[in-house]
# Entry
Amino acid sequence: MPDTATPCVLFVCVHNAGRSQMAAAFLTHLAGDRVQVRSAGSAPADTVNAAVVEAMAEVGIDIAAEVPKVLTVEAVQASDVVVTMGCGDTCPVFPGKRYLDWRLPDPAGQGVEAVRPIRDDIEKRIRALVDEIAPAN
# Structure
């Protein structure tokens, strides 16, 4: 990726109600305007998982107003990095895009106690990604 362009990262999971929402929120929180952030789901839920909202609030990030979004070909085409989290083959693949597959447990139907370690794992991965694609000057 050129240093002059702002990289765009798309996070994809099935319902866009848990893992991808946490990842997008952490990237936005940690990188600010150094990165464009999107998230989507191959079969979006109606709302973001309440346990995920609670777990993120515990670390000072409010995602209560977020809404799951449907994955579109255009979102993938507009992204430099696509991070999949269990969406399987439903994520379109385009040449020239960087794809990462993060194998993470699905927080669907889990309580906040089960979501915390997933949240913490995502935060570590996001910190490493920020250092790689959008280091602070």
